[in-house]
Write a structure and sequence with these properties.
CATH architecture of the largest domain: 3-Layer(aba) Sandwich
Structural class: alpha/beta
Bound molecules: nicotinamide-adenine-dinucleotide
Strand content: 15-25%
Organism: Qipengyuania vulgaris
GO molecular function: oxidoreductase activity, acting on the aldehyde or oxo group of donors, NAD or NADP as acceptor
Largest sheet: 7 strands, mixed
Family: Belongs to the aldehyde dehydrogenase family.
CATH superfamily of the largest domain: Aldehyde Dehydrogenase, Chain A, domain 1
CATH topology of the largest domain: Aldehyde Dehydrogenase, Chain A, domain 1
Active site: 242
Distance between the termini: 74 Å
Radius of gyration: 23 Å
Keywords: Oxidoreductase
Number of domains: 2
Strand order of the largest sheet: 17-18-19-14-13-21-22
Length: 474
Amino acid sequence: MTKTYANLIDGELVTAGQTFEVVNPANEQVVGLAPACGKEELDRAVSAARRAFKIWRKTSSEERQKVVQGIAGVIKENADELFRLLTTEQGKPHAQAQQEIYGAAGLAVAQSTLTLDDVINQDDDTRLSRTRRVPVGVVGGIVPWNFPVMMAIQKIVPALISGCTIVLKPSPFTPLTTLRIAELIKDVVPAGTVNIITGPDELGPLITEHPDIDKITFTGSTATGRKIMEGAAGDLKRITLELGGNDASIVLPDADVEKVAEQLFWSSFSNAGQICVAAKRIYIHEDIYDDLSRAIAEYAKTVVVGDGSQQGTGVGPIQNKKQFDRVCELIQDAKDKGYEFLTGGDVDPSGTGYYVPITILDNPPEDARIVAEEQFGPVMPLMKFASVEEAIERANNSEYGLAGAVWTKDTDKGVEIAEQLETGTVWINEFLHISPLAPFGGHKQSGFGAEYGVDGLKEFTYPQVITIKRDARV
Ligand code: NAD
């Protein structure tokens, strides 16, 4: 029988009057049912979070650390069950699902020890002035479907560590693993500090506009990010937005073709390309373009696209039908325009499961949709450049500014290029590495604020300055 999962509200596992189906993208079968919450359940969750905040805000950092490490502990203890469930609802291959589960636990441990220490602004005969950080209050967390567990943990952990409480909404496409974690942490987190409620997209605006939520932390598309900003404007909620990207890699002529081909492949095709910081445009110097593009395409032919639960699968299906249709549309557009394909391009629309073959385009023009738009799927355009200046200009020619990479033996040159890229993160000779201790955020339309590290933690707090007048006459 199909399992109906429960929400976590005020320390209790609760269901709603209605449920919705969650589908396995590998075979389009229903995997489980999740509660379809609306205003009533949201109000209950927010009230619980508000009550819990009054107590939680006064806890010591040691106490918060213990709870967060407890969350990491249960995730690790149940990792086997969790990563299999994650593959079933999200589609990613088991090995990548395992990485996400252990990565989320690792993130919780790494961030559990972060603290926001007081800062002394002035300490002399006239004044002692000190800045402390105080938690903003009740946080609304809204997450997407590409890394459902990692994204949930990266909202829950800094909220708790900073002294806030949270109401988290998973994506309706991938709520189940998060709800299983909700069951597992029920007795680990104090009642009301972490509330997890599921529902359709319509639940999102109710969270954004809720008068008793103080801050929204959101990961998702730039289009939804704009709506969140509008919704949060009514009562000037604090917001952190992690949005889309159209991340460029620049490969200089000194890069070793054999060594970088496989790495470049996975920088684009991990998680079937559904990563905000996946390489979505790869600019290769003309001296090595032919050799490198051939090597990437050859490697691509060795990677199996299929059901992520099957051994040997390297690239799983697209997570949902809407995204599948969008990726197919971009491929069709490339075909209609007569662009060259190095591999892939033929989708079987009648098959079961949302499978898109690994598709690599050969030097499409800069204004091609596949270059100008975020594809968020296993389709990668390789482009030729002649000069570094040209590559930098083309890489920066985007409304997005999330991440980028430079591949070269000359790391000084790499840094020189990195400093000219208009993105929040630039990697030299790697991709997709996100440190739990460094700020991660987008420039331009890729985001607002940052997550991770002390900078990320600060976003869950207000600064408060307390000044003592030392030579006062009272
Ligand atoms: P999405 O914006 O459609 O949905 C994200 C979440 O927002 C879901 O939980 C959804 O239910 C909710 N939502 C939908 N409409 C809403 C509204 N009007 N108000 C409030 N909430 C609403 O995004 P998606 O399709 O789930 O995810 C893909 C996008 O996310 C891509 O653009 C990708 O680049 C981006 N992303 C960014 C990062 C990052 O860290 N920058 C990470 C992962 C994904």
